[in-house]
What does this fold into?
Amino acid sequence: MSNICYIIEGAKHLVSEIEQLDMKRRKIMIGSLIGFTAWQLPLLFQYFNFNPIVSGWSSMISAIGCFVWLYYNVRLVQFSRLLRKKRELAGPLNDEYIQAIRIKSFTAAFWVLLACIVTLFVLSLFVDLKAQFTLHILIIVGVTAALVSYLIFDKE
It folds into this structure.
């Protein structure tokens, strides 16, 4: 009887550890999304030639966002190393449900990016768009669409 209790207690501990790691992964993705947008959006606004005071503040916000994004990328690397060490946790954190969410988020990001490309193409017929500005928008839209759609699908 004690072996069954030991197995049940071990399973409960494993489930709670998986739930904690799943919440940790979600926090890492949210932090990465916040850091990336805080880093890139001020850089995008610099294309519009704001006055120097606003430009200085946007550069500071961008630098802080860059450090936040780097911090969460380091946390993501640490998270993946932890999963390599604990193989019994890696399986449930990468099951069919999570793989389906990844595919759905990649697909959603693809269509959002395609819509952005079409919008920029139509806009370029009326306004002269710089190539660097256009590519910057596409990078921001692609990364944020993938992260946001993953977080939305994971919440379902």
